[in-house]
Amino acid sequence: MDRGTRMAAARVRGGERRAEIVRAALEVIAERGYRGASLGAVAERVGLTQQGLLHHFPTKEALLVAVLEERDRWDTGGGGGHGGRRLELLELLVEYNAMRPGIVRTFSALLGESVTEDHPARDFFTHRYARVRADMAAVLRAEFGDRLPGGPTPEEVAPLVTAVMDGLQYQWLLDPDAVDMPAVFRAFLRLLGAR
């Protein structure tokens, strides 16, 4: 095996190991919250020393951002946002989230914690929500045009749709038997006047 082939194989193994670490971090954060999750606990879960984990992610904050980026990739199919999605695809995302409470719990816990000034995910969520609102406005414009029934613009309604999606996740996590997240989101879309 030549040097180039060995280096390519090492990069693949490193990428696989990073993905394994991110999955473990998702689990640990879902169980303990970001502040309660330690690099040591993540390292132990994947059979590494903490020093070995730091080879892949030099700080806890770097690992956190990788976890959040991975969650967004899962939700968008790698597309980096909701741009171009029709409302039906948002319904499918809500249904998909209802099948993965651990991921939703992790996201919700990190989102809640990130509102404090010193939280390392604050910038991530601030930028993410700016992008999501813009993408959501594009989805609404594609569905309704420049005005929704009742007169508001897509830009005025985009934060509302986003708030409903995230707020439903919290209610569903707290009482999944009482809150049918997909059904409630479909009812909300009917309120908007979606086809």
Short note summarizing the structure:
With 195 residues, the chain is mainly alpha-helical. It contains nine helices and no strands.
Description of the molecule:
It is a single chain. With 195 residues, the protein is mainly alpha-helical. Helix content is 74%, strand content 0%. The protein is built from 9 helices and no strands. Mean pLDDT is 86; it is low at 78-84.
Write the layout of secondary structure elements.
Elements: H1 3-36, H2 39-45, H3 50-56, H4 60-76, H5 87-97, H6 101-113, H7 122-144, H8 154-174, H9 181-192
Helix proportion of residues, in percent? over 70%
Q: Let me know the largest β-sheet.
A: none
Q: Which residues sit in consecutive blocks of at least 5 with pLDDT less than 50? A: 78-84
Quickly give the structural class.
Answer: mainly alpha
| Helix/strand order | HHHHHHHHH
Number of strands: 0
The gross shape turns out to be elongated
Q: Specify the number of helices.
A: 9
Radius of gyration: 19 Å
Q: On the 0-100 scale, what is the average pLDDT? A: 86
Percentage of β-strand residues: under 5%
- Ends: how far apart? 58 Å
Q: Notable features of this structure?
A:
195 residues, mainly alpha
